[in-house]
Amino acid sequence: MRKKTTSVLLFGFLMMLTSALASYWKAPAKKVVLFPTTIDQQQLSWKESPYGIFALGYDDCENDTQDPTITAPASKTVATNNDGTGNCTTTAALGSPTASDNCKVETIKAFVNNSEISPATFEFPVGTTTVTWTATDSSGHTASATHTVTVIDNEVPVITHNGDKNVNNDSGKCGATVNVSASATDNCSVGAVAGSRSDGQALNALYPVGTTTISWSVTDVNSNSAITKTQTITVTDNLFYPSRKTSTGSTGDCRGRIHGPCETCIAHSTG
Ligand SMILES: [Ca+2]
Ligand SMILES: [Ca+2]
Ligand SMILES: [Ca+2]
After folding, report:
1. CA distance 140 to 246
2. Residue 21's pLDDT band (boundaries 50, 70, 90)?
3. Which ligand approaches the C-alpha of residue 151 most closely?
4. Which domains, and CATH codes, for the chain?
5. Ligand nearest to the CA of 60
6. pLDDT one-digit tens code per residue, 192-251
């Protein structure tokens, strides 16, 4: 009889103690965990009672009203060739945001222009892009933070011309008409290549006997200059002029001219 009475009193005392502790923490204890061994347990709040007893107090995650917190990684600056050459974009190592919540962070996602991205594979264009990181807790509350990714085009255009030329002078001329051309490629885009002749003449003007060089240059849309390419045009006088007396000549005509634009030509062909 005495043993039963003692048990009843002990049970009552434990109930009162449980009620007092629950009232102190304003939330009922749902279970007892001796040590927080799982991730879920570690995310719960541990509190100390006024009696020196360590115990587990629960936040009420069923009625969670608290938003998570999130901090974005530092902003990044990368180059177009970070993921290989030849295109106008690159992937970037974005780093990892840090997020926490009073209950549990369920997801952390990254967005660009309101569309979710895969951070490891997203191709960032040249310029500055804002990445928004959003953490969502187990109750659907969210928090966001942003950082930027700046991509610089570090790939210069490449010029190709139609090759050095070795030609004879045109019949009756002290030079030759030569078709020259050049183009350029770039990882982004590039305009027309400009050619500058060493004699200052237009590209389609007669190329005189001797050597003329053309310096080809171009700049891409991101102001990167190509390595200048030089094209060499060599014109050889292989015409024979039997008598300067019999020729009348005209501009660019070697026959019979001692002075003027064909003087070099005459000196060569007549000895
Ligand atoms: Ca929360
Ligand atoms: Ca690239
Ligand atoms: Ca480029």
Report:
1. 101
2. low
3. 2
4. 2-63 (no CATH), 69-152 (2.60.40.10), 158-236 (2.60.40.10), 239-271 (no CATH)
5. 1
6. 999 999 999 999 999 999 999 999 999 999 999 999 999 999 998 876 554 443 344 444
Nearest to 184, CA basis, from 229, 145, 142: 229
**Distance between CA atoms of residues 146 and 20, nearest Å:** 45
Residue count (the chain): 271
Give 62 Cα–ligand 1 centroid separation in angstroms. Answer: 10
pLDDT category of residue 34 using cuts at 50, 70 and 90: low
Å from CA of 66 to ligand 1 middle:
4
Both tokens of residue 207? 């190329």
Two tokens, residue 252: 């660019």
Q: Where are the alpha helices (DSSP H) in the chain?
A: 2-25, 39-42, 263-270
Give 69 Cα–ligand 1 centroid separation in angstroms.
9
**135 vs 86: CA distance, rounded Å:** 35
Protein residues within 5 Å, CB atom, of ion ligand 3? 153, 155, 186-188, 220, 224
Query: What is the whole-number distance in angstroms between the Cα of residue 136 and the centre of ligand 1?
Result: 8
At residue 138's C-alpha, the angle toward residues 63 and 57, to 5°, is 55
Smallest-distance ligand from the CA of 124: 2
Q: Please give the DSSP secondary-structure letter assigned to residue 95.
A: -
